[in-house]
Amino acid sequence: MSDAPSPVPLSPVRVKVCGTTSVRDAVLAAEAGADALGFIFAPVSKRLVTPQVARAAGLSVGPVVARVGVFLGQGLTEVLRTAEAARVSAVQLHGPLAPLYLRAVAAYYPVLRVLRPADLGQEATAEEVNLPGVTPMLDAPDPGSGKPLDWAALRGVFPPGGWLAGGLGPENVAGAIRALNPGGVDAVSRLEAGAGSKDPGKVRAFVRAARER
């Protein structure tokens, strides 16, 4: 009988397909088995959508699939108005933010608070991610670049139950999940045929790989 320790069981992982820009791609992700769609409202993004497009795409998949509005550097009023118009069910926030701002958004929507590896271990970060309704999401320093994080270097500091993004795709998501056991995974660029247009085969392969790891 072997004395080797049993592997730590992996928790169920939620799968988010971000950068959704059309009803077609929303339906594709939902039919592939995605738990959530991401709609980007940050003006700097090449995957920017209007609240009207996001609302139509979200309504096309029904209430079971979460609809996440993604924001960067926008004011509180703009975030809340856009989220309401788009009928999202959660909000993803990038960039430097005050705890008071996070509390205000979290009073209306569950929040995915995006962090970088350099943020981990900081006192301010610990305060943010411990706020009610806020879940951390670790992303690459350059979101949307397709460059994965060094998962081995993050063992021991990755926040329990946190989400993982940054260069994930069908070919590496299973390894990322085994390395860090995140609560959810998020992908954009490696699922595309072109900026803002999803590749059906890559989307299906990504969801399958995340489920079967």
TrEMBL record:
GO terms for molecular function: isomerase activity. It is an enzyme of class 5 (isomerase). SUPFAM superfamilies: Ribulose-phoshate binding barrel (SSF51366). The keyword Translocase does not apply. Keywords: Amino-acid biosynthesis, Aromatic amino acid biosynthesis, Isomerase, Tryptophan biosynthesis. Residues 15-208 form the N-(5'phosphoribosyl) anthranilate isomerase (PRAI) domain. It catalyses: N-(5-phospho-beta-D-ribosyl)anthranilate = 1-(2-carboxyphenylamino)-1-deoxy-D-ribulose 5-phosphate. CDD domains: PRAI. It holds the Pfam family PRAI. Coiled coil: none annotated. Pathway: Amino-acid biosynthesis; L-tryptophan biosynthesis; L-tryptophan from chorismate: step 3/5. Its EC number is 5.3.1.24. InterPro entries: Aldolase_TIM, PRAI_dom, RibuloseP-bd_barrel, TrpF_fam. Belongs to the TrpF family. This is N-(5'-phosphoribosyl)anthranilate isomerase. It comes from Deinococcus rhizophilus.
